[in-house]
Amino acid sequence: MRTSADRRIVLEIRSWKFGYVVIEGHDLLEWGVCRFPSGGSTVAVRKFIRLVTMYPPSLVITRRTRRAKHRSVQGAKHLLQRLRQALKVRSIPLVVLSRTQVRSFFFRQGYTNKHSVGQAVAEHFERLKQRIPKARKPWDPERHIAVVFDAAATAIAFEELQQ
After folding, report:
1. Range 59-98 burial, b when 16+ CB lie within 10 A, else e
2. Using one digit for the tens of pLDDT, what is the confidence trace for 46-92?
3. Which domains, ranges and CATH numbers included, belong to the chain?
4. For residues 32 and 145, is the Cβ–Cβ distance under 8 A?
5. 3-state SS assignment for residue 11
6. Closest Cα partner for 30 from 45, 15, 11?
7. How distant, in Å, are the alpha carbons of 5, 40, 121, 132 from that of 127?
8. Does the reported pTM lie above 0.85?
């Protein structure tokens, strides 16, 4: 049986929700989306702490938030700072990958758009195969589950970049 020494929680942070995957070794243990009111970082941190308590990780990984100056991006940045503080108190390391690192990794593998990356994620984590977000037009809203696939893509990129 594996210990939590090789358990990772990988996040995709947005201004009003975060998607997560819990990975132990190469296995996907759990995944989901936590919503909270826009600007409600206190609620988000509480939900995150509950997740860390349920699945004690040896490491938390996330992808850097976008750099735009829009208010929603500022909320995501603030949440990332709060999560960093909460992890520091618990002595859990946080690794932040750049958006370019994740995108470049998949581009080198031949996955050039979000839908193809989602298909690659589903091939890697069989449990997500039934949930692949459909390809969308630029004017269509992103599906709720997309943040989980973004978190899983970050997990895959991190794993491969470590080798």
Report:
1. bbbbbbbeeeeeeeeebbbebbeebeebbeeeeeebeebe
2. 999 999 999 999 999 999 887 666 656 777 888 899 999 999 999 99
3. 4-162 (3.30.420.10)
4. no
5. strand
6. 11
7. 23, 30, 10, 10
8. yes
